[in-house]
């Protein structure tokens, strides 16, 4: 089984992988986050699609909140595998802070969305049936703060996710050090680091 | 030139060849281009020139009315009311919504005049609005924003937008430019037809004796899952004689005096449409002989100046619906919801100023 694509000295030992559960959580989050962000940006600019997309957006948000809470529990119970040796000390610090920022925004953003709808006095209903209780008082100033925060966090999320993906892609493509393969699911394929 | 051409730079101990760097730039650059490009397009930073967006409506209201800081961008002038809806249970035939079970549901509401100028003088010909939130702030709320018109003027968001621009008062006359309005009507025959219908039922003297209508069609869903197209209306119950009022707030002052002297009541009629009726076009009336269910009585008992925490801060989004009422495919509904949300967001962050209608200043 080939462990190297570029055939360099990097990653002499096969890189350790995340657990299957961690991988599933990760890719599920990735899909949900891109969906929530793109749908969110789209719906506020699309008259005809707004009503439908708003329902989907809120449902995805509730799902993200659930997945992120499970991920935080999982993260506390399983230490992630070591980075490839190509990650230096300073880069390691940056990676840690990116990861913390990601977890922070992933957890905060759905809560802010839920609270902001609550503050407008509007019922929060997801998946068409499930009614969530309000988590903020009916108050237009509270709404306004949360509504603006929801947009700022969305752009912050775009930046942090872009940084995260860029670093991993750079490692995988430039160094071929198996950074990405730690997170690729085993579905019977051999080489999945080329993207 | 330098030794670097012999010993290439390294990253993490791995030498960076030209090929690797180019591949990296292609991969990262490609991802970022798609990612940021998508955000920029979807987020409306680019490519919005030919799209009608909620933001463009907000801009258009500001262009027509000037900045109206802290006020609704349309129906800017209004007053808050409260009361209850007494259901007689008849509505259960078509809808499983809790509001139609026999009994009382508290209601918050707001009377308003169409237009984005919060200090416009009252005129009989201005469309009157009534926004209601049944069961506010509960989880099974039903919100509606109705007008005292038999049909709506526009069938599409583009029509509404074009009419809004054509309605800008000319600086000389204070009235819309007749040429702009004529050009608009030539391009929107559906509005010209709707205006004729509207002209056939002249407005009543006041808010209290106005019939308010949903205009858009909604689907009512019964316990058994049957979907019925419905347009609802609030028909005044023996309205009190209008009190004479004059001045820039004549209509609102009369309303304040009437509620002070006794509760105002309307019957909620649920008009049942047929499949052949225009379900997705609010400019077209339904045949007059359609069956209407008397679902109960709306009683408004109190009136208040708009202030923080009352109906001022409710967005009467027509798509805040309880289980048992669903939206139709009327192309106005989603845009209404979207533009109301944009207006709510903008006015929420703007500094507030006192509204034109101050209940305490209306002489008894």
Describe the structure.
The complex is a heterodimer of chains A (195) and B (364). Chain A has one domain: Transmembrane di-heme cytochromes, Chain C (Fumarate Reductase Cytochrome B subunit, Up-down Bundle). The N terminus and C terminus of chain A are likely disordered. Chain A is elongated and about 50 Å long. Chain A has 195 residues and is mainly α. In chain A, a hairpin with a 3-residue loop joins strand 1 and strand 2. In chain A, 61% of the residues lie in helices and 3% in strands. In chain A, strands 1-2 form a two-stranded antiparallel ribbon. Chain B has 364 residues and is of the alpha+beta class. Chain B has one domain: Catalase HpII,  Chain A, domain 1. Chain B is 27% helix and 22% strand. Chain B contains 7 helices and 12 strands. In chain B, the strands form 2 sheets. In chain B, strands 3, 4, 5, 6, 7, 8, 9, 10, 11 and 12 form a 10-stranded antiparallel sheet that branches. In chain B, helix 2 crosses helix 7. Chain B is globular, with a radius of gyration of 26 Å. Chain B starts with 9 loop residues before the first strand and ends in a 15-residue tail after the last helix.
What descriptors fit this protein?
heterodimer, A: 195 residues, mainly alpha, Fumarate Reductase Cytochrome B subunit, two-stranded antiparallel ribbon, 4 helices, 2 strands, 61% helix, disordered N terminus, disordered C terminus, B: 364 residues, alpha+beta, Catalase HpII,  Chain A, domain 1, ten-stranded antiparallel sheet, two-stranded antiparallel sheet, 7 helices, 12 strands, 27% helix, 22% strand, globular
Silhouette of chain A = elongated
Largest sheet of chain B: 10 strands, antiparallel
User: Can you tell me the CATH topology of chain A?
Assistant: Fumarate Reductase Cytochrome B subunit
Total of DSSP H or I helical runs spanning 4+ residues of chain A: 4
Assembly category: heterodimer
Q: What is the number of independent domains of chain A?
A: 1
First-to-last CA distance of chain B: 94 Å
**Biggest β-sheet strands, sense, barrel of chain A:** 2 strands, antiparallel
